[in-house]
Amino acid sequence: MANPAFHLSDFDAPDLSSAPLATPRVALTVVVPTLNAAPRLAAALQSVSFADEIIVVDAGSSDDTLGVARAHGAQVMSIGRTTIGMQRNAGIAAARNAWILALDSDEVVTEELRASLARVCADQSPIGRAYKVRSRNWHLGRELRHGPWGRDWKVRVFSRDARFNAARVHERIQSSAPVAALDGALLHWPYDDLAHQIVKIAQYAKWSAEDMRAHGRHAHVRDIIARPIWRFVRDYVLFSGWRDGVAGFVVSVASAFSVFLKYASLWFSSEAV
């Protein structure tokens, strides 16, 4: 079943759809990895129209992702199924600008972040520098202001000499550069609904188990039992996920379930060898 259409006005969030776009171009390359991202991609690309280069790196979409990308002036690269980190790296390698913004197709750049990026990109000597950006996450009809989602910072702005690792899940930038924080945020809608979250959790658990096994990790019974319990306590109690109401409880349970699936998958993959 196709994902529902994505409109910023559907959410209790700043509406960037009417933000002024007639601003000077910024010497920034935005790299966006995609796979069947058509419903949300337009909003992401509209929010970075100030960048003078946008590269969409597609992993084999069967929907209109490539058409949406081209309609918004993006350069398109198709590289087939691979990890998100490798998609990002392909786009970074093709970039003509010194500064890179790694953007996901379900994220939108705020006006405050646009201004921060313009200031950063005025310096064309970025070697040895990187910036983290705060993600503001919406799920289950509200912004998740607490729990792990409420303290979500990622390194997303860096020089084009940096690269991501090859992990299938939670890829990270490989750089020893000191990291500073930028003003502004990325507005992020990670899931269409709860069912979509559970499907992604199952897939990511499988990939995480494969990554762990490739590094020689093995699961124990205590991992399957204790780690999910600890994740729930951490997210819901220590990180104050309870302050997000029912949504906070649900996402904390889902997070614990993801940990359970990851270690259960690792256990059974090891048993099969």
How would you portray this structure in words?
With 273 residues, this protein is an alpha/beta fold. The protein folds into two domains: 8-188, Spore Coat Polysaccharide Biosynthesis Protein SpsA, Chain A; 194-271, no CATH class. The protein has seven helices and eleven strands. The strands form two sheets. Strands 1, 2, 3, 4, 5, 6, 7, 8 and 11 form a nine-stranded mixed sheet that branches. Helix 2 (65-71) links the parallel strand 2 (51-58) and strand 3 (75-78). Helix 1 packs parallel to helix 2, helix 5 (194-214) runs parallel beside helix 7 (245-271) and helix 6 packs antiparallel against helix 7. It is globular, with a radius of gyration of 19 Å. Residues 1-22 have low confidence and may be disordered.
